[in-house]
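Thread: "does anyone have the structure for this chain?"

Original post by V.I.:
We have the sequence but no experimental structure in hand. Need at least a predicted one for the grant figures.
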Amino acid sequence: MEVRVEKDMIEIISFPGPDRSVTQEGLKRYKVSNRRYRNRRIGDFLKELHLTEGRNTGFGKILRAFEENGSPKPEFETDEDHSYFISRLFVHEAFLKEKESKNNQKGAEKEPKKGAERKLDILRRLEENPEITQVKLMEEFDLSRKQIQKIIKDLREEGLVERQGSNRSGRWIVKK
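Reply from O.Q.:
Generated one for you, tokens below.
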């Protein structure tokens, strides 16, 4: 799984792709009837974000949430071999304009990252540098020890990361 957070969208790429019952045409029409998870981590991730409750409820819930706040419809993509699945969730136009005007204000400070985005950044950092210490993470992300420990605890409980070896000389194992 790969998650990219861009200025105007979040793109989630999952390997392998969807079940064979999911078609390109169905994805374009947002009509999907699949009863099996192909990637449990993505299902659990979407549940954590309250975008789905269980199998096959994510599409409807995502579409309703986007429609209710006036966001552009998401895009879903796979190939004929179902080797990947891409979800593109676009940012609301008003939010982009609001962000732009904040960035143009003189002396405006960059807002700190929150929640899932911060967690994903830390997960990426652990993958890039498996020997990194919690102290280094505190410095790099400008977070307290307690905040880093909470994020690491959450990542461990979600089965995304584990520690191999001691706290001083060990390394992080990021699970895919």
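V.I.: this helps a lot. DSSP finds seven helices and six strands in the chain.
O.Q.: and The chain has a mean pLDDT of 78.
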